[in-house]
């Protein structure tokens, strides 16, 4: 295979590993949730992690920006290495954006202030630059007109788009999305997925944990199926869906398609 | 009834009363600012991951909350000079009130901090913010907003409790009332007026804090 992969969506991955996970281990008490996971994501790739709840996919995603302390292994993002001994994770977190299931907007700040806060206190940008960056980020998710609205005045879909804008404004190298449509009413899912789809088309590196199988199939370059704390299978979505190699994946696909 | 009321006799003591009210307001204002600041620091320490710090602050809170204010005040005013620390009446009063309010507000503010959804702290961390930045910009505002009514009540209690400071001759409102009734022998009138003034001060304080709370913390709070 040539080093340049063209995905189903017509995007081009560069072949440079941007995120590299080696031997990631994590236990919660006596329960080992990640049993030595290796994974690499190239710049511009869109990767979806699927699997049953408890398979370790969310834990793996959360370990990439240090929200879960790993017990073993190395995380490397754009040359920034983190091992279990690392205390200060801020350098890593500046390269990795994250969007959560529950949006996690700061309720006392307007949409614009939510986006501006980290630009101001982390990136130490001046007022004008911060404001301009926040306006641009909100415009990108189609919410330029909601700059002064508070989270409580926005729908779930709008809140999640503000959360995406807040992450994007920090100019991360990779964006992690942790079940970002799971808390939304069905009619609001599409507007959020639309934003993610556009990011993918623009070449943003994305790692998603998702239950939106149709979306994963259409937008992702690669599916990673996790089972029992390990990557059981991975590959192009069409291949995995049509010819699952493990009985676990076959069963999982059967379950989600029966819904 | 043999007793005939004579409130006009209080008029001669107007300057004493004005001084007393001013001192009560002053004591309360200074100890509120310093006490709440101490409470914010204490709550941050008690919820921090630095265990020894959390334990020391916990001990302070329990010590103050489980001993009488009068004894705390006497200890500072009469006890500390044995160690060579001599404080004026107002200094001892302020110190005792700050230490007292600091302990209670630590507990009140801690409750607000602990009600912060974990996801918001994670969102701050994932944006690259430091722990202190997350505390200051993400946690503190909503936490104070949530516990503002409880904190207001505690400050009213401290304001009313400042009457105890008359026992070390801090010349606040209760001291003024004591002074007046010892001169004109009209305790009913003197204490009636003191009661009315305390009531007015408490109502004004609650009103002011409610106004401040609405100005500072109502942003983004869903209105039904």
From TrEMBL, chain B:
Annotated signal peptide: none
Keywords: Cell membrane, Membrane, Transmembrane, Transmembrane helix, Transport
Localization of this protein: Cell inner membrane; Cell membrane
UniProt-listed Gene3D superfamilies: MetI-like (1.10.3720.10)
InterPro entries: AA_ABC_transptr_permease_3TM, ArtM/GltK/GlnP/TcyL/YhdX-like, MetI-like, MetI-like_sf
Ranges for domain ABC transmembrane type-1: 21-209
Spans traversing the lipid bilayer: 20-41, 53-78, 190-209
UniProt-listed Pfam families: BPD_transp_1
Topology term for the membrane: Multi-pass membrane protein
Keyword Membrane listed: yes
CDD domains attached to this UniProt entry: TM_PBP2 (cd06261)
Family statement drawn from the similarity comment of this UniProt entry: Belongs to the binding-protein-dependent transport system permease family. HisMQ subfamily.
This protein's name: Amino acid ABC transporter permease
Protein's organism: Azospirillum endophyticum
Lineage summary: Bacteria, Pseudomonadati, Pseudomonadota, Alphaproteobacteria, Rhodospirillales
């Amino acid at each position: 295979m040539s080093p340049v992969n063209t995905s189903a969506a017509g995007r081009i991955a560069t072949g440079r590993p941007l995120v590299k996970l080696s031997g990631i281990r994590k236990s919660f008490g006596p329960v080992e949730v990640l049993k030595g996971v290796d994974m690499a994501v190239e710049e511009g790739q869109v990767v979806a992690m699927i699997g049953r709840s408890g398979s370790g996919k969310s834990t793996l995603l959360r370990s990439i920006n240090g929200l879960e302390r790993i017990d073993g292994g190395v995380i490397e993002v754009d040359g920034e290495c983190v091992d279990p001994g690392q205390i200060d994770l801020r350098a890593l977190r500046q390269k990795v954006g994250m969007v959560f299931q529950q949006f996690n907007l700061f309720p006392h700040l307007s949409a614009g202030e939510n986006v501006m806060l980290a630009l101001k206190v982390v990136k130490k940008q001046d007022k004008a630059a911060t404001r301009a960056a926040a306006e641009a980020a909100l415009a990108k998710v189609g919410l330029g007109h909601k700059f002064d609205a508070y989270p409580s005045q926005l729908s779930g879909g709008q809140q999640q788009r503000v959360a995406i804008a807040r992450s994007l404004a920090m100019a991360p190298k990779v964006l992690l999305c942790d079940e970002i449509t799971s808390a939304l009413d069905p009619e609001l899912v599409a507007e959020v997925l639309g934003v993610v789809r556009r990011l993918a088309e623009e070449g943003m590196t994305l790692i998603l944990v998702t239950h939106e199988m149709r979306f994963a199939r259409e937008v992702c370059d690669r599916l990673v199926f996790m089972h029992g704390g390990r990557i059981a299978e991975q590959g192009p979505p069409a291949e995995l869906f049509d010819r699952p190699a493990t009985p676990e994946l076959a069963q999982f696909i059967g379950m989600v398609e029966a819904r | 009834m043999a007793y005939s009321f004579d409130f006009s006799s209080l008029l001669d003591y107007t300057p004493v009363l004005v001084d007393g009210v001013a001192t009560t307001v002053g004591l309360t204002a200074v100890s509120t600012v310093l006490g709440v600041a101490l409470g914010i620091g204490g709550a941050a320490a008690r919820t921090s991951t630095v265990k020894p710090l959390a334990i020391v602050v916990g001990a302070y809170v329990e010590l103050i909350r489980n001993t009488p204010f009068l004894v705390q005040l006497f200890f500072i005013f009469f006890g500390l000079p044995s160690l060579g620390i001599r404080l004026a009446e107002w200094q001892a009063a302020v110190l005792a009130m700050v230490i007292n309010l600091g302990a209670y507000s630590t507990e009140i503010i801690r409750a607000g901090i602990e009600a912060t959804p974990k996801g918001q702290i994670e969102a701050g961390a994932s944006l690259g913010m430091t722990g202190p930045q997350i505390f200051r910009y993400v946690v503190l505002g909503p936490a104070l907003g949530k516990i503002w009514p409880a904190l207001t009540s505690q400050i009213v209690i401290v304001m009313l409790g400042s009457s105890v400071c008359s026992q070390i001759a801090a010349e606040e409102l209760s001291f003024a009332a004591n002074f007046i009734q010892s001169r004109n022998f009209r305790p009913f009138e003197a204490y009636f007026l003191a009661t009315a003034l305390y009531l007015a001060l408490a109502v004004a304080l609650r009103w002011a804090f409610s106004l401040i709370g609405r100005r500072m913390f109502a942003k983004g709070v869903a209105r039904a």
